[in-house]
Amino acid sequence: MPTDQPPVAFVLVVILFALAEFAWRRRSGRGYDLGSLGANLGVMAGQLVSRLVTGGVVAAAMIAVFRLAPVQWAMDDWRTWAIGFFVLEFFYYWQHRFSHTIRWLWTAHAVHHSPKEFTLPAAFRLGWTGTISGAWVVLLPMALMGFHPAVIATLLAINLRYQYFLHTEAVGKLGPLEWVFNTPSHHRVHHGSNAEYLDTNFGGVLIVFDRLFGTFAEERDDEPVRYGLTRPVTSNNPFVIAFHEWANLWRDLKHVRSPRGAWRVVFGRPSDLETGQPTGPATRPLALT
Ligand SMILES: [Zn+2]
Ligand SMILES: [Zn+2]
C-alpha cells in the first residue's frame, strides 16, 4: 500500500460505512449529532493541514535514525512486513499508552477522546499538535531496529485505517476474535470516561499487548460506556477542541507552587490530576506541591 498516493478506495469505503451507520443510528433511535459530525470533519481538516506542515520533521527524524541501524530489513521480503506488523503493534501500544499516562502527550491525544457520541467519523478527530508533543518518538526505536521509515509509515497507516471501523456502537461482541483483535467493543471501553474503563485497551489492530501488560478491560453490560472526557469539551469549534487540553495544562500550571508540582502537571498521569470538577481557576484547587 503506497502511502504517497491518495487512498481513494479507502475514502470511498469510509463514506459508505459512515452513511450506513448514520442510517442505522437513526433507525435504532440513537440519533445522530450533526454538530459533532461537523466538529469531527473540522478537526480532521486541521489535522491534515498540521500533518502537511509538520510531518516532514517526523520523516526526517525517522530517516536519520534508520541510517544508524546496524542491520536493515529488506522492503521486498514478506518477512519484513510480517515481523514489522507485530513490532509496530508493540510500539504503537506503548505510544498510545504513554499518550494517556503522560500529560504532555495527552494534550494532543485528548482531542481524539473528546466526542461524546461514538461514531465512525469520530475516528478522524485527531490532535493537531502531535508532532510538537512528540509521541511519535516512541516509534523511533523501530527505525533503529532497521525497519525503513516507509515500512513503518505503511504499517501505521494500516493500523489507523483498521481502527476507523472500531468507532461504532453498531457492532456487538465478536466471539473469539475478541481475544486477539482490537474490536469495536474493546475500543468503546477505551473511549469510556467511566472510572472502571479509564486507561485501558491501548492496542491498535491487536489487543494482545493489553492482555499481556495488564491494561485490558472488558465491556460490561452493567457498566454502559460514557463517552468523552472526564472534563468534557462542550464546544463544536475545531480550534477549541484542538487546543482545550493545552489551555487546561496552562491553567493547572498557574496553580502549582513548586518545580515538583510543575513536573507533575506536565508529565504526571492525567487521571491522577483529575478532581472530577469543571476546570477553572476558582473550581479546581490542585494541591500540587
Ligand atoms: Zn486513546
Ligand atoms: Zn479511538
Explain what the structure shows.
There is one protein chain. Residues 275-289 have low confidence and may be disordered. The chain is mainly alpha-helical and 289 residues long. The protein has helices spanning 8-27, 34-67, 78-101, 103-109, 130-133, 140-144, 149-164, 177-180, 184-190, 208-213, 238-253, 259-267, 270-273. The chain has one domain (8-231). It is globular.
Please indicate the percent range of residues in DSSP E strands (runs of 2 or more): under 5%
Rg calculated over all Cα atoms: 19 Å
Structural class: mainly alpha
The largest β sheet comes out as: none
Oligomer: single chain
List the secondary-structure elements in sequence, H or E. HHHHHHHHHHHHH
End-to-end CA span: 51 Å
What is the approximate shape? globular
